[in-house]
Design a protein that fits this description.
The structure holds two protein chains of two kinds. By secondary structure, chain A is of the alpha/beta class. Chain A has ten helices and eleven strands. Chain A has a single domain, classed as Aldolase class I (TIM Barrel). In chain A, helix 8 packs across helix 10. Chain B is α/β, with parallel strands linked by helices. Chain B has a single domain, classed as Rossmann fold, CATH 3.40.50.880. Chain B is 26% helix and 33% strand. A seven-stranded mixed β-sheet of chain B has the order 2-1-3-4-13-12-11. The two termini of chain B are 15 Å apart. Classes of the chains: A alpha/beta, B alpha/beta. The interface between A and B is large, with 39 and 41 residues.
Chain lengths: 250, 203
């Protein structure tokens, strides 16, 4: 039976791990290699490493960091940040990534997603979506690089399904770092709109939030603050999920 | 020397790093000349079947692999797409012939017909069914999978199964030809042990 995954998110500002609140206020969490080493020793299911400034600063994620993190981890590693060409994806995979996460580039050059899927396969391509609710609670796509976005969420999801991306990393900008639970309505809305596995992110504060996200339709839950700022570990989250009858790898 | 085949679309670094961690000497190669000297082959894979076949053909690796594996009986471990390329035919990317080491087809995972999400991504337990490659690995150990297609063999081969909507082949062995659908290099302890088994035992 397939297990639901709990995935620590490691966000970089180039070289340091940072944790944001609503994509804005930042706290430095130290060295990504040390952080990843701890997660590996805790036998986590998977790791996601994202450089959240790469696209904005028009550069790629530092491949030496990717390589150093990869040499510490014998679990799946998803890497994202400023990837714009198949050549860059290729280099990122060679540095040790198993999957790549694409975000800003999809707004700039939607066709690139299809190209990436055709070269590397669906399973290698994760589309990262950031959602910010408008005042009337409509889901709006959010661009890190402050680019104008022509897609609505529904159009965007349809586009991603047609492009055959392997997974969707669904992040709530409003709840990012707030530690008051995931946006379950959003998870339910997106997961019921597509067959693509959803990794929910943004807002987890305690293990029961992970269970709720799965029940809302997520195939995996990603989190950062809960692991940086509380005593909850990925293993504790999985234990709690297991007790609620959710299959996990313990 | 153990040779890891690199057709530039696989997750070569992950496999190489795992072997390094296990202190297993190996080379990574896409040069048919190097591959033709290999004592054991590991064929890792992340990518599209059609694209991979195209690259195998254009580099001349397809002929070298057929000679080394079928004539010289060099043991080979295919991982994910690497394993799928052993099949006669693959649907992905428009459909084309594979290396035909194992008679069978690569088809879109039948879990789709059960209404399950694809790709099949994540950790799933494998019924190891006494396959030698799983020596010293407990039955029902979880391994990491990420794939949308599966192998359906059309000849009698040894197989270990996992379940995602349907029982599907998680590992297959035909004499010295071994394939795993999951990623041992990404499956923590159990996966590392499987790589060690392939490298150190006789197949």
């Amino acid at each position: 039976m397939l297990r639901y995954r709990v995935i620590p998110l490691v966000l970089l500002d180039g070289y340091s791990v940072v944790k944001t609140i609503q994509f804005d206020i930042r706290r430095n969490q130290g060295n990504p290699i040390v952080v990843s080493r701890i997660y590996n020793s805790r036998n986590v299911d998977e790791l996601i490493l994202l450089d959240i400034d790469a696209s904005k600063e028009n550069r790629g994620i530092d491949l030496h960091t990717v390589e150093a993190v990869a040499s510490e981890c014998f679990m799946p590693l998803t890497v994202g940040g400023g990837l714009k060409t198949c050549e860059e994806i290729s280099r990122t995979l060679e540095a040790g990534a198993d999957k790549v996460s694409l975000n800003s580039v999809i707004f700039d050059n939607p066709e690139f997603v299809r190209e990436a899927v055709s070269v590397f396969g669906s399973q290698c391509i994760v589309a990262s979506i950031d959602i910010k609710r408008s005042k009337d609670s409509t889901y709006l796509l959010y661009s890190h690089a402050n680019k104008p976005i022509t897609f609505t969420l529904d159009e965007y999801l349809k586009f991603l399904i047609d492009s055959k991306v392997g997974e969707i990393l669904l992040n709530s900008v409003d709840l990012d770092g707030k530690m008051c639970g995931y946006d379950y309505e959003l998870i339910e809305y997106v997961s019921s709109s597509t067959d693509i596995p959803i990794i929910a992110a943004g807002g987890a504060a305690c293990p029961s939030d992970c269970s709720k996200a799965v029940k809302a339709g997520a195939s995996a839950v990603a989190a950062a603050s809960i692991f940086h700022f509380t005593s909850h570990t990925p293993q504790l989250c999985k234990q709690a999920m297991f007790e609620e009858g959710i299959p996990v790898r313990l | 020397m153990i040779t890891v085949i690199n057709i530039k679309i696989g997750n070569i670094a992950s496999v190489s790093r795992a072997l390094t961690y296990l202190n297993i000497p190996h080379v990574v190669a896409n040069d048919p000349k190097v591959v033709s000297r290999a004592e054991k082959l590991i064929f890792p894979g992340v990518g599209n079947f059609f694209e991979a076949v195209t690259r195998l053909k254009s580099s001349g690796l397809d002929e070298v692999l057929k000679k080394r594996v079928l004539q010289d009986k060099v043991p080979i471990l295919g991982i994910c797409l690497g394993m799928q390329l052993f099949a006669t035919y693959g649907e992905e990317g428009g459909g084309c012939e594979g290396l035909n080491f194992i008679r069978g087809n690569i088809v879109y995972h039948r879990a789709k017909q059960q209404g399950l999400r694809l790709p099949h991504i994540g950790w799933n337990n494998v019924r190891t069914d006494g396959l030698k490659i799983f020596d010293a690995i407990p039955d029902d150990t979880c391994f990491y999978f990420v794939h949308s297609y599966e192998i359906v063999p059309s000849e009698a081969v040894k197989a270990a199964y996992s379940n995602y909507g349907v029982d599907f082949v998680a590992a297959v062995q035909k004499d010295h030809i071994i394939g795993v659908q999951f990623h041992p290099e990404k499956s923590q302890e159990g996966g590392l042990r499987l790589l060690k088994n392939f490298c150190e035992e006789k197949f």
